[in-house]
Amino acid sequence: MGLVISAGVTIPDDEIVLTAIRAQGAGGQHVNKTSTAIHLKFDIHASSLPEFYKQRLLALNSHLVTSDGVVIIKAQEYRSQEQNREAALARLTTLIQEATRFQKVRRATAPSKNAKRKRLESKVRRGETKNLRGKVDY
C-alpha cells in the first residue's frame, strides 16, 4: 500500500525499514523482555521520491537525517509495538511534509501618510505637555 505523503506522492512499504528493538529507560520486567520500540530507517537516495523532495530532505538541517542521507527515527513513546510503528511513520510523514513546505515571501510595507501624520501629531502633543512642566516665572 505505502505511506501517503501528499496527493501525488507515496512511499512504497519496501523502502522503509522498520525494526523492533527494546525500549530504553525505566519500565520494570515488561520493558526488559519485550521489543516494543521501533527503529525506522529510510534511505533518501535510494527512494522513489521525486527529485525535488530528495533535495529538500538532504538540505534539511535535522538530527534525524545522517550525512549519508538516511533518515533514522526511533519511536518508544508507547508500550505497544503497533502504536510505536504508527508514531514513527507519522513522524516520517511530518518530516517530509515540513521539508517541502514553502515559506511565504514577506513583502516590506511602509506606513501610510495618515499614520505618519498621526504619529508626528502625537509627538508634538507630548512635547507640549512636557514644556508645560517647566519652571514657573513670577
From TrEMBL:
Compartment list: Cytoplasm
An annotated GO BP: rescue of stalled ribosome
GO molecular function, one term: translation release factor activity
Biased composition annotated in UniProt, kind: Basic and acidic residues: 121-138
Top EC class for this record: hydrolase
Stored InterPro entries: Pep_chain_release_fac_I (IPR000352), Pep_chain_release_fac_I_sf (IPR045853)
EC number: 3.1.1.29
Keyword Cytoplasm assigned: yes
Region (Disordered): 106-138
One Pfam match: RF-1
Prokaryotic-type class I peptide chain release factors domain ranges (all copies): 22-38
Entry GO CC: cytoplasm
Catalyzed reaction equations: an N-acyl-L-alpha-aminoacyl-tRNA + H2O = an N-acyl-L-amino acid + a tRNA + H(+)
Repeat found in the keyword field: no
Highest taxon, organism lineage: Bacteria
Record's keyword terms, sorted: Cytoplasm, Hydrolase, Translation regulation
Complex formation: Associated with 70S ribosomes and polysomes.
Family: Belongs to the prokaryotic/mitochondrial release factor family.
Protein name: Peptidyl-tRNA hydrolase ArfB
